[in-house]
């Protein structure tokens, strides 16, 4: 199973925000869309950062609500690990586990085309395990 397969099933929609937007705008978008991360892009849809719930909690928890007026660029993670559509679910799981993050932007030709979350990966892995279990049961019953 590849990243592209997951995106074709779940959709290519991904929420983005500009680096100069405020943290308040970003948190309103996170809440309204009920998502855990927003990809920060430039006008050409190149990934320049990612802002997660963890980033928001960290800065507001340490510095207080005054940080809501700061720019997304001042809070975002700028060293973003991305993936491409041809990568496998197992490769994505390794990236997420090693980096301890839950969202992975998907790029093609250097531009954002989607996002994969840990929930997407778990859902696909569970479906794969169910298919394998079903195949094993069928094999045993036909023997």
UniProtKB/TrEMBL annotation:
<protein>
    <submittedName>
        <fullName>CBS domain-containing protein</fullName>
    </submittedName>
</protein>
<dbReference type="InterPro" id="IPR051257">
    <property type="entry name" value="Diverse_CBS-Domain"/>
</dbReference>
<dbReference type="Pfam" id="PF00571">
    <property type="entry name" value="CBS"/>
</dbReference>
<dbReference type="InterPro" id="IPR044725">
    <property type="entry name" value="CBSX3_CBS_dom"/>
</dbReference>
<keyword id="KW-0129">CBS domain</keyword>
<feature type="domain" description="CBS">
    <location>
        <begin position="8"/>
        <end position="71"/>
    </location>
</feature>
<dbReference type="InterPro" id="IPR000644">
    <property type="entry name" value="CBS_dom"/>
</dbReference>
<dbReference type="InterPro" id="IPR046342">
    <property type="entry name" value="CBS_dom_sf"/>
</dbReference>
<feature type="domain" description="CBS">
    <location>
        <begin position="76"/>
        <end position="133"/>
    </location>
</feature>
